Amino acid sequence: MPATENALAERLVPNVMVAACPSRRILSHVTSRWGVLALMALRGRTMRFSALRRHIGGVSERMLAQTLQTLEADGFVIRRSFDVVPPHVEYSLSELGEEAAEKVASLVLWIEGNLERIPGAQGD
């Protein structure tokens, strides 16, 4: 196969190891520190922004807003805005988001269950 056909084939077949593959960008969104925590927090429930921020310890308002916007743009988070005073916004996971959260939860549970075996978790 000529080089140009190889390049085209690489662009068409999802492969996270290929720098230009969109799957790499989505992976970085889902597995970012705040992305993982937002997915975990919203698993199976709807939350208002302030409750979500309190639930995810250490996240700034700006960082949480950016994370939710990114996950919403990727189709993982649903943002529902109510036309009331004061403004009321709720966040939940889409079906796709629930699927992604389930996968992320497996990794999180594995890490929590193996924390004592992980040298980096012990501190210096």
Automatic annotation (TrEMBL):
Residue ranges of every copy of the HTH hxlR-type domain listed in the record: 21-119
Entries under SUPFAM superfamilies matching the protein: Winged helix' DNA-binding domain (SSF46785)
GO MF term list: DNA binding
Alphabetized PROSITE patterns for the sequence: HTH_HXLR (PS51118)
Keyword DNA-binding on entry: yes
Keyword line: DNA-binding, Transcription, Transcription regulation
Annotated coiled-coil segments of the chain: none
Entry-linked Pfam families: HxlR
Record carries keyword Transferase: no
Designated name of the protein: Transcriptional regulator, HxlR family
